[in-house]
TrEMBL record:
Chain sites annotated for binding substrate: 68, 113-117, 174, 179, 248-249
Record text on cofactor binding: Binds 1 FMN per subunit.
Known pathway: Pyrimidine metabolism; UMP biosynthesis via de novo pathway; orotate from (S)-dihydroorotate (quinone route): step 1/1
Assembly behavior: Monomer.
Cofactor(s) annotated in UniProt: FMN
GO cellular component term, pick one: cytoplasm
Enzyme Commission code(s) on record: 1.3.5.2
GO molecular function: dihydroorotate dehydrogenase (quinone) activity
Lineage of the species this protein comes from: Bacteria, Pseudomonadati, Pseudomonadota, Gammaproteobacteria, Pasteurellales
UniProt name for this protein: Dihydroorotate dehydrogenase (quinone)
Length: 339
């Protein structure tokens, strides 16, 4: 059935199709028919896994970017995800980059986006999280506004951390999107040290205030050199970060065939990212030595590709582009069979 749905969805511009899907999932999630739809999808419970001190009902999650504003948490929840990460969200609402900014590469199951953290702001998202009935784990992915100078970027993360802390099961610091100018500079050297120090100090304050510990993960890029990856792994460990998500989208077009839209500016996700993401996870796992859990993300489109990430060191898996190309049956397959 999804092949027919996909054909209809793919007849629309990529962003219009995404917006329509979110609206439909929002309606589904808020409908009295929600339990019936969930039973029709018949996704198994899956195998419980404890990561970052959190018990996940299964290790398969929805990656950030799919539901930026938390509009469709319950709709996505019917698909059987063990966790859903909403965002990236910023302190203030922002339009993002000019359209068009999303492009499908169906021949290779890829997607390019240069959205630029388009979202309705942290307050809007938090209200949606409060209303959600989803019983799985909810992560909130936070970023900085485009208008915020990079040297003041940590202020935006602290602002969002304060807002999200009491409503998230974990919080992700997104410093790896290629679509906000200079954002990736926060992955390196003194900028990363300063940001993580501020975030961890605030986490302790909030933990004492709310009497609960909310883990913090950092999402990294796949375009790091060997030396940069080693340095980041060392920094994450020294600051006792709770988790790392590997990886975000790539700006590389290496070995990408000449296709319509293939040279558009933006982050590339989907199958073309699959191998590089898995390589980053493997190298990261060697450096972290089990001290920090890894959430594997990038090009997961089958049980084989998900299992490959688990085999080299990922503790959990996130899916986004694969869901677009293969539909909810992919989630069912992963939940049922991942080891």
């Amino acid at each position: 059935m999804y092949s027919l749905i996909r054909k209809a969805i793919f007849s629309l511009d990529a962003e219009n199709a995404h917006d329509l899907t979110i609206k439909l999932l929002k309606l589904t999630g808020n409908s009295p028919l929600n339990p019936i739809i969930k039973s029709l999808l018949a996704c198994p419970q899956g195998e419980e896994k404890t990561v970052m001190g959190i018990k996940f009902k299964n290790p398969i999650g929805l990656a950030a970017g799919a539901d930026k504003n938390g509009d469709a948490i319950d709709g996505f929840g019917t698909m059987g995800f063990g966790f859903i990460e909403v965002g990236t969200v910023t302190p203030l609402a922002q339009e993002g980059n000019p359209k068009p900014r999303q492009f499908r590469l169906p021949e290779i199951e890829g997607i390019i986006n240069r959205n630029g953290f388009n979202n309705k702001g942290i307050d809007y998202l938090i209200e949606n999280v409060k209303r959600a009935h989803y019983k799985g784990i909810i992560g909130i992915n936070i970023g900085k506004n485009k208008i915020t100078p990079i040297e003041k970027g940590k202020d935006d993360y602290i602002y969002c951390l304060n807002k999200a802390y009491n409503y998230a099961d974990y919080i992700t610091i997104n410093i790896s999107s290629p679509n906000t100018p200079e954002l990736r500079q926060l992955q390196y050297g003194d900028a990363l040290e300063d940001l993580l120090s501020a975030v961890k100090n605030q986490q302790k304050i909030l933990c004492d205030l709310h009497n609960k510990y909310v883990p913090i993960a950092v999402k990294i890029a796949p375009d790091l050199t060997e030396e940069e990856l080693v340095q980041i792994a060392d920094t994450l460990q020294r600051h006792k970060i709770d988790g790392v998500i590997a990886t975000n989208t790539t700006i590389s077009r290496e070995n990408l065939p000449q296709l319509k839209y293939s040279q558009e500016i933006g982050g590339l996700s989907g199958k073309p990212l699959q191998q590089r993401s898995t390589e980053i996870i493997a190298r990261l796992s060697q450096e972290l030595k089990g001290n920090i859990p890894i959430i594997g993300c990038g090009g997961v489109d089958s049980l084989e590709s998900a299992q490959a990430k688990i085999n080299v060191g990922a503790n959990l898996i996130q899916v986004y582009s694969g869901l677009i190309y293969h539909g909810p049956r992919l989630i069912k397959e992963l939940v049922q069979n991942i080891k």
